[in-house]
Amino acid sequence: MLQLSDISALQSQVKRWKVSQQRLVFVPTMGNLHQGHLQLVRQARSSGDKVIVSIFVNPMQFAPGTDFDRYPRTLKDDTQQLDTLDVDVLFTPAVNDIYPQDLEKTTKVIVPGLSDILCGEFRPGHFVGVTTIVAKLFNLVQPDVAIFGEKDYQQLAIIKKMVADLGFPVEIQSVSTIREADGLAMSSRNQYLTPEERAKAPLLYQTLQALKKQIDSGASGFPEYESRAMLALQQGGFRPEYVSIRHAATLAPASDNNSPLVILAAAWLGTARLIDNIAV
Ligand code: AMP
Fold this sequence. Notes:
It is built from ten helices and nine strands. By secondary structure, it is α/β, with parallel strands linked by helices.
């Protein structure tokens, strides 16, 4: 595995592969890799000729005063894990190379609407940071395929829309959420949980599963069910931001279960903001 931090070195490698018509598959990450990330990499390996993984903790998607500084950075471990998965290039650009100017002066990519609801409502500016970095990385890596996790369901929907709206020649693939044995979705932020909080954390997925069961057996009047799910989380020690039943394709609020739905939730447990979702 070649580890490249230099943007022009990455671009030269990409150019050589493009000339020889290699199919490039890209997995963008913020590092601190767990089995969820590794599943994306495995799918990448089987989806093309060359696999490029990036590790970049993107300051633009963190609001001031949130966890950018304490976000776990474990490059040595990450490199070892990727090496065993037959990755071709690990791209680890420096913040100053990606953003040579102040963030306020940097050109942004905005996907309106979808970026402003759910997590976007509670993390203003977050998805602009995500779409801007993903667009920039797509331009640098020029992948034929890029792979994202369904754990970040809203992010996946926003990236699909960006790709469609701007005509990026990239096929977006997704991977189902990888979970711990007790159902908690794997996340780098799970490390912020104390042992006591970690023991409570599976309640988030259990709440989504219970709600799915109710919808599957014909529940109607969704706002009432959403409120009850929020209450269950609160009683379990969470500070929920939202539990919301949405149309899977558009993320518009759902009022009946006649089309594919997704239930999404975000909730704080101690200093960790956890998100999860389940298809109905
Ligand atoms: P992150 O490093 O958190 O930005 O995540 C990088 C990619 O891994 C994103 O596409 C995430 O959706 C995906 N991912 C993170 N956690 C999981 C998980 N538990 N299962 C599947 N994919 C995941």
